[in-house]
Amino acid sequence: MAKLVSFKRKREFDAVFQRGRRGGNRSLGVLVMAGEPGAGVRYGLVVSRKNAGNAVRRNKIRRRLREALWLLLKDSAADLDIVLIGRAGALELKYQEIVTAIRRTLPRGLAPSPGETPIETPGAGTAEAGS
């Protein structure tokens, strides 16, 4: 299982912004580049107040992006640096749409294809009857 580690320094974000491969959609930006050998998957999340609104909305977007990234890359042995940019409308995206945007940007072969690993919506089917 890959360990997902978040970026801590501005220069880590800057490196991905300058050299990363870009992708995503209207509500989500994705930048990916090869990471340092042995570093595993490192990620950064950018959700601005201007685009996403108040702190509750921004944190909800961050949680959803982090969960989608983990679901997609939890079994990956790749060394990647990824920056996810949450934009206005990111809360309306379904998990599958977030995962698809990330998958399209990853280098071929690093993420499972849509048929290989089913991505389940977090919390689906976990509610107990009568609660």
Q: How much strand? A: 15-25%
Q: Which class of secondary structure composition applies to the elements? A: alpha/beta
Could you state the order of secondary-structure elements as H and E?
A: EHEEEHHEH
Poorly predicted regions are 115-122, 124-131
- The appropriate CATH architecture is 2-Layer Sandwich
Shape: globular
- Put simply, the count of helices is 4
List the helices and strands and how they pair.
Blueprint: E1 4-6, H1 10-19, E2 21-25, E3 28-34, E4 41-47, H2 49-52, H3 55-73, E5 80-86, H4 95-105
Parallel strand pairs: 1-4, 4-5
Antiparallel strand pairs: 2-3, 3-5
Summarize the structure.
With 131 residues, this protein is an alpha/beta fold. Helix content is 34%, strand content 22%.
Features:
131 residues; alpha/beta
Description:
By secondary structure, this protein is an alpha/beta fold. The protein has one domain (4-105): 2-Layer Sandwich (Ribosomal Protein S5, domain 2), CATH 3.30.230.10. The chain has helices at residues 10-19, 49-52, 55-73, 95-105; strands spanning 4-6, 21-25, 28-34, 41-47, 80-86. Helix 3 packs across helix 4. It is globular and about 35 Å long. Residues 115-122 and 124-131 have low confidence and may be disordered.
